[in-house]
Structures are given as structure tokens and as C-alpha cells.
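Recap for those who missed Tuesday's class. We walked through two folding examples back to back. For each one, the amino acid string is listed first and its predicted C-alpha cells come directly after. Nothing is annotated here on purpose, so try labeling regions yourself before you check the end of the notes.
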Amino acid sequence: MAKQILNQDHSTAWIVQTWATFVISLTGMTLGILNLPVDNWIKGFMGMGLTFTVGSTLSLAKTSRDMHESKRITSRIDEARVEKILSEHGTL
């Protein structure tokens, strides 16, 4: 009998909070950069920095998730192999 790994979905409240904080923080930073009392090239540089920071953060989050899921799948395959070997020898 294989163990079932529970798939825990995120609650609607968590998803809404995550998107809200992302949009609010991005909007706040954008408005802050636009209202800085500096030349436009400095604002552009800061905007590019913000854009690359957000992009690299999303890439890092996706890579971390993919690595975690890969380890889970490998672990499940190894567990299935052990269960098969044990069942073939009649110890289960």
C-alpha cells in the first residue's frame, strides 16, 4: 500500500494576500521612483533596477519550487522501489 502525499492547495485568502502585496509593493515603488526629485535618467536606472529585481525574484521562486518538486518526485520513486522490493520478499 503506497502512502499518499497530500496535495495542500493554497487558500483563497492566501492567494489574494500574495497578489495584493505584490501589486501594492510594485505600485508603491513605481510611484516613489516617479516622484523622486532627480533627473529622468536616474529614475530610469532605478526603474530598470526594480524591473530586474522583480524578474530575478520570480525566477528564483520558480527555480526553488522546481527543485523542491523534483526532490519530492525522486523521493516518491525511491519509496515505491523499496516497497516493491519488500513486497516481493513478502515482508509487507
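Example two. Treat it independently of the first, because the proteins are unrelated.
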Amino acid sequence: MSERTTAQGSRVSPADALAQSWRTIRGHRMRSLLLILGVSIGVTTLLAIYTIVTGLSGRIRDDVVSANQPYIYISRDSGIGGGDPAELRRRRQLLPDLIGPVRATEGVDQVDYQVSNGSGSVLKYGKDKTNFVQMFGSSEVFPFMFSIKVAEGRFFTAGDVTASNRVAVLGYGPRKDLFPQIDPIGKTLRIFGKPYRIVGTMAERKHIIGSMGDNFVCLPWTTFEKDGLRGGFEDRNIALSVLAGYESEEVMSNLTGTLRRERRLRPGQANDFDIVNSETYGELIDKVTGGIALVLVVLSSIGLLVGGIGVMNIMLISVAERTREIGVRMAVGARRQDVLLQVLIEAGILTGIGGVLGIGLGYLASWGMTHVLRFPFVISPAVTIGAALFSVSIGLFFGLYPANKAARLDPIVALGRE
């Protein structure tokens, strides 16, 4: 004869305990519903925060890295290596004579030379004017290097760079501000007090920092050097893409050798330049947003702990209401582990249902928020399973005390309860 039908009659299998727990839950629908709702709200909040912060990290990474292929950035100061600011300012500029050696370095594909003066301006055309825009000089490969599309006209050519032609390509911001109703191609703007012919405009980047990411004007670096660097602040950098078949770290090592040789640095002498790859910026972003996500997840977990306390409270009430029933069952042969199992299963079912409901609501809320904010939306199987297991474990943990209390009831005392 199976355990389910033993002579004692009240010893139950896990399946029996599950069925009995479900009957109890259905018999107290409102109480059970409120507990499920509390747990589901906690799981929804936890999952939504994690998913949205993960999407934010992905969006910032995409916007900062801003390229379809890995690139390497050479500068006097990358801004992420620390060091003495005064010493960094004394470093030599990366002058144009480095372009050739860098381009000839093994593993290097395209090279973009960039010049800026650290300031911006407000441009005017007729009665219209822009917001504050950043102006900089670059090579003809700039849009291809950083995967920014040309919307109208063209980008300037290698010939424009060589001849120092006064041509300009507008970002989406100044194009919208100055030419909302007319075609800007061929129009002339005064930049640095000189006439510049507009040859193209860039597509909207939809950057996370909003319109600021589109408020720029790009000029040939040779022209910018001629008109925009008149004894003031200057910043010169070199960006380059990695040739297919090469690893970024390998190319960075090759570039270090090239630059040290070109700048005649002695063995043991420190580099007077910084080299970083695009993945370094991505890792920095992940580190920052990962810390934020951890804090927010810990804070949102408090909601689940509150739900767990509610589980304990409701299960204590449930045990108190069924004291006589438990006494009868124990008097006719039910074991303590049978009573313990039933109460724990009941708590686990309630929080498990709340967890599943919370997962659905959490991803629905995350999808809506990431759609509005234009963040990537990603469903993580590991996080989904973790949220479900966590919700069930909350029920089991906080249901352990009521379950143990029920299992330790004296059958004689329990039978005397009304």
C-alpha cells in the first residue's frame, strides 16, 4: 500500500501537500490575492529597474563608442588614466607629421586626424541663429570611422583637406536651426569670420544627451588649423580603425612602438601620449552603470523583503486559523514533516505566482519605458529565472517560521482550540 493510503491515513506525499495547499489558497482568495499582489509589485520593480538600467548602459555604450567597428584613439590625455594634470598639459601635441607613420603601422586601416580649439560659437544665417555649436576639424574619413550618416549633399573629400578648402558639413542641430525650410547645400556661412560653403549635412544621431550630440560643424582639419587655431587653445587627436584580422591590443602595441620611435623617446622614458581603444570606453561605462544598477537593485529588493514579511504574517494567521485541523491530522498519524511541508508549499505557491506575474509585468513595464526612452530592450533568461527563484525563496524563507510553529503544535493543545 502506498504512503498516500497508509493506515494512519494522514501521512501525505508532496503531491497531496500541494493539493491541500492549493485548496487552502482558493479558500482564502482575497488574502492570497493581496499577498500575490505584494510580491508581484516587488518583482516588477526589481526586474524593471534592472532591465532599464541595462538598456541605459547599452545606449550610452552605443552613443559613446559610436562605431560599427573597433577603433583606437590617440591623444595627449585620454582622461581615464589619472596622472598629474600639469604634467599632462605639458605633453607635446600630436602634430600632422605623425599621420603618415601611424597610417603605415601594421594593423591600421583608416586614420582620422582631428583638431579642435575647445570652444564653440553661435552661427547665424539671415535672421536665424543656432544654439551653441562645437566646431572641429577632421579628415574625410570621419563619418565612416564613427558610423555617422550623411543626410544631404556630401562629406568633404581628401582633395578638400589637401587644398584647405573652406567647406563645412553641418550637424543635424545647426541644419535644423538655420535652414528649417530651405536646402542648405551650397549656401555660405561665416565661420571664424571667413566664408564657408556648406557641402553637406549629417543625419540626426538621436544621442542620449539629446540635441547637444547633434550641435556641431565639421571642417577639413587643414582649414580649421588655418582659421580656427590663432594662438589659442588647441587639441589634436588621432583616431584609427583596426584592419580586419587584427586584434585591437596587437595594433595598440604596434602604435606604441611607432609613436615612441617618431617622438624619439629613450628606453625607460614614459610615454607622452595615451592610446585607448573603443572597448575601454565601453568597459568604463559598464563599470559606472553596473554600480548604479547594483544600488538600485538592492534598494528595490526592500519591496520584496516587505512582501516576505507579509508572507510570514499571513502564514501565521493561516496556522492560527487551522490549529484544530492540524491537531486532528497529527492526532491520527500526520508527521511533523507533513505539516511543515504543506505550510512551506503554500507559501512557495503564493510567492511563486507573485513572481511569475511580476516577471510579466516587469518586462512589460521595461519594454514600455525603453521604447519611450529609446534604450535597447533585452530579455535576460538568467535574470528571469533568478527573479522566479528569488520570489519562491522569499516565500520559503519567511514561511519557515510559521511552518515550524505549526509542525511543533501539541496535538492535545491543538484539539482543545475552537
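Answers for example two:
The CA atoms of residues 18 and 345 lie 6 Å apart.
The first helix runs from residue 14 to 27.
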